[in-house]
Amino acid sequence: MDKFDSRQKISVNILMLKLVGLWPEKHESYKPNLYTIYAFITVVGIMGSHNFFQTMDICFVYKDLEALAASIFITTTDVLVSVKSCFFIQNMKILKKVILSMNDDAFQPKSKKQVEMLGNSLNFWKFMYTWYFSVLSITSAFWLILPVLTGSVQRKQLPLDAWYFYDTTTSPLYEITYFYQCVAIIFLLVCTINIDSLILALMIYIIGQCDNLCDSLKHLEVDEKQNVHKRIIDCIKHHKKILSFAQDSNQFFDKIILGQFVSSTTVLASTMFQLSLVNPFSTDGLIKIMYTLAVMSQIFIYCWFGNEVELKVR
C-alpha cells in the first residue's frame, strides 16, 4: 500500500503561512537569510506598525466611551494576531517537529479502510478551512470597503480608526494610508486564518489517528498472517506516538488558544456595546454583526474540535 502523505493535505495552509513570512524553508527554523528579513518586514513592519497606530488611537480617545469601544473591538483582534504570530515563531521548532512526524510509519494507515477514514478527516479539515476562510475574508472585505459603501470616503474616513503622525485627510496621504491599512488587514487576515486552521488540522489529525488506532484494535485477529502479539505491540507504539504528538501540539498552541479566548471575550463585549448604538439593519450594523459572527466562529472551532479530541482520548 502506498504511503499516505498527510502533510500534502495541508500544503495550501503551509503555503499561505509562507507567503506572510511564518514558514521558513524545509524543516528549519529562522536563520540569517532573506526570508527572515521578509518575515521581519511583514510581522513587525506591516502588522506591528499597524497595531501600534491603532493602539495609539486608544490613548487619544479613552475619555470618549463610544469611540473607545469602537477602537478597542478592532484593535484587540489585530493585536492578538501579532501576538499569535510571535508565539507561532517562538514555537517554530516544535511545530516543524510535529508536522514532520505526521508521516511517521507509526501513523501510516494499516488498511484501505483506515486510509479512507484518515482521508475523510483531513478532507473535512479542508471544508472547514474553506468555510473559515470565506467567513473571515468576506467580513474583512466589507470592513475595508465600508467607507465606500457609506459614502464617508468623501470625508476622507479610513476603514479603521488609527492615529498617524500626519494629516490623513489630504491627498495623496489619505489614499496611501487607505492602501496601507488594506495591506495590513490582508496580512493579519491571512495570518489568523492559517494559524487557526493549522491548529485545527492538528486537532483533526489526532482525532483521525485515534479512529485508526481503535480500528486496529478491533481487527487484531482478522489478519491471520501476522502475529497478534506483534500487532498489539504496534498498537501500543501507535498510542504512545499519538500521545507524544498531542503533547507537542498542545505545547505549540496552548498560549495561542488562551490569547484567543481572552481576546474574543473582550471583542464580543465591545461589539455588543457597539451594536446597541447603531441600527442593526444599517450597513454599519450589518458589518458589525458579521464581525461578531466571525469572532464567534473562531471560538467555536476551538471549542468544537477541542471537545472532539477530549472525547476520542477518553
From TrEMBL:
Pfam families from the UniProt entry: 7tm_6
Keyword Transmembrane helix: yes
GO terms (BP aspect): signal transduction
Transmembrane domains' residue ranges: 34-53, 65-87, 127-146, 178-208, 256-277, 289-305
GO cellular component: plasma membrane
A GO molecular function held by the record: odorant binding
Main location: membrane
Keywords attached to this entry: Cell membrane, Membrane, Olfaction, Receptor, Sensory transduction, Transducer, Transmembrane, Transmembrane helix
Signal peptide segment: none
Localization annotation: Cell membrane
Topological type in the membrane: Multi-pass membrane protein
InterPro entries: 7tm6_olfct_rcpt (IPR004117)
Keyword Metal-binding: no
PANTHER family attached to this UniProt entry: ODORANT RECEPTOR (PTHR21137), ODORANT RECEPTOR 19A-RELATED (PTHR21137:SF35)
The name this protein goes by in its record: 7tm 6 domain containing protein
Organism of origin: Zophobas morio
